[in-house]
Amino acid sequence: MNNKVNVRFAPSPTGVLHIGSVRTALFNWLYARHNNGNFFLRIEDTDKLRSTDENTKLIFKILEWLQINWDGEPVIQSSRMDRHKEVALDLVARGKAYYCYCTPEELASKKEYCLRENKPYKYDGKCRNGNTNHDLNIKPVIRLKSELDGFTVVNDMVQGEVKVNNSQLDDLVLIRSDGTPTYMLSVVVDDHDMNITHVIRGDDHLTNTFRQIQIYKACGWDIPKFGHIPLIYGPDGAKLSKRHGAASAIDYMQLGYLPEAISNYLLRLGWSHGDEEIITRENAIKWFDFNSVGKSPSRFDMAKLQNLNAHYIKERNNESLLEYALPFFKCELTEENKKNILKGMNSLKERAKTIVELADSSLIYVKAPEIYDDKCSKYATSNHLELLREIITKLNNAEFSTNEEELCNSIKEFANLRNVKLVEIAQAIRGALCGKLASPSVFEIISIIDKEETIKRLNSFVDHYSK
Ligand SMILES: [Zn+2]
Prior knowledge:
The chain has helices spanning 19-34, 53-65, 81-93, 104-116, 183-193, 206-219, 249-254, 259-268, 281-287, 302-315, 318-325, 335-351, 355-362, 382-396, 404-418, 422-434, 442-466, and strands at 6-9, 38-43, 75-76, 97-100, 141-144, 151-156, 160-165, 173-175, 198-202, 225-229, 232-233, 298-299. With 467 residues, it is mainly alpha-helical. Helix 2 (53-65) links the parallel strand 2 (38-43) and strand 3 (75-76). The structure holds zinc ion (ZN).
C-alpha cells in the first residue's frame, strides 16, 4: 500500500478565484510539501454554463503567482464524465443505487407538503425497492441507496469528531435525468481515482462530506481523511465577499500586494506557529500541520495585510522590486527613468505599503508633476516663491551643488541666513519637485534628477503660483 500523502485543490471556474480558496490551496500545498507528498490540481468545470476559460486561466495565473506549483497535469473534471457514469451504473448493477422515476412535479409537491407541515423534506425512497409502475417516457435519475441506520462519523483533522444520524441523509442523486453526473458523485470518483489521501477544504463542505462518505462506502473504496478549514469572514463577521472590498485573489494582485505577503498573511489566517508573524516559505513547509489550524472563523484584517506587504516590499531587492512594479506604471519608462528610480529605491520602498503606491511615488523620477496638490499652496506664498527664486539662481550659478549632503548643508545655511525654518523651504521645494508634500528627502531627489530638471520644476512651481 502506497502511503504517500496526496492532496488536491479543486476550484470551480464558475467565478473568479476567491481569496479564501487561495488559502485552501495554500494549506493543501503546504501539507503536501511538508509530507513530501503530491499536490494535484483539478478544475471542476462540469457546470458548463457558468464555467469560463478565462476563470480557468486565472486559477493557473494566481497559483503560479503565489508559487503554489502542482504535480502532474491538472485534471479536467468534465473530461471524466463517462467514468463517473460508469461508477454509477456499476452501483446500480450491485444494488447500491437505483433508478428513480419520480417526476420533478411529484417531488415538488411532496416538498411543498413538508414545508406546509413544517417537516424537514427528504426524498421518501419511493423507488428504492424498484418502481415498475412508472411512465415509460420518464427519463430516470440514479439515486444512491444510502444507509438508513447508524451514524456517519468524520474524524476531521480540524473539527475533530463530527457525526450525523444516517436517518437524516436521503438517497442523493448521482446521475441526473439528462445523464450528467452530479457534483457529489464526480468529486468522490475523481478523489478516489487520483488516490487522494487527504481532502482539505472549506468547512462549508462539511455537510457534503457525510453524503460523500456514503458514496465511498457503496463503492467499497478507502475513505480519505478530511480537514475542513473555517471560512474567512470580513470585519463585520459575515463571510468575506465583494461587499467587503477585495474578495478575489486577482483583486489583491492588482492592488499591488506581493505574492509573498499574501502567502504569509493567508497562512497566518487560521494557522499559527507560536508568535511568529513573518514566516518564510521554507519555515512554513517545515512547520505546517493541522494541530495548529484553528476551529473558529478568521477575520480578514486589511491593516495587518498592509503591514506584511510593507515588510516584504522592504525585503525585496531593488532590481526585482522595480521589475515587479513595471506593469503598475501607467507609462513607459526609459532606461534613464529606471536608473533613477533604482537610485532612489531604498527611500521609496521604505514608504510604500503596496506596489501601486511604490509605482506612484516613483513617478517623481519619471516626470515633473502635472498638478499640484491643494496643500502645496501653503508653501507657495510670495515669501516662499522669493526663496525658491534665490535657490534657482544659486543652482544656476553653481553656488549650490546637487550633491545630496552638500546641498543639504547649503540649504540649512541659507535658511539660517534668511531666518526661516528649514521645513518651510524643504516643503516648498518638495511641492515643486513632487506636486505633493510627502516624498523622500528633497535633497536625495535633487541629487538624482539633477540640476537641470530641478531648476525646471522649481521654475514651473514659481510660475504657477505667481499668476
Ligand atoms: Zn423515485
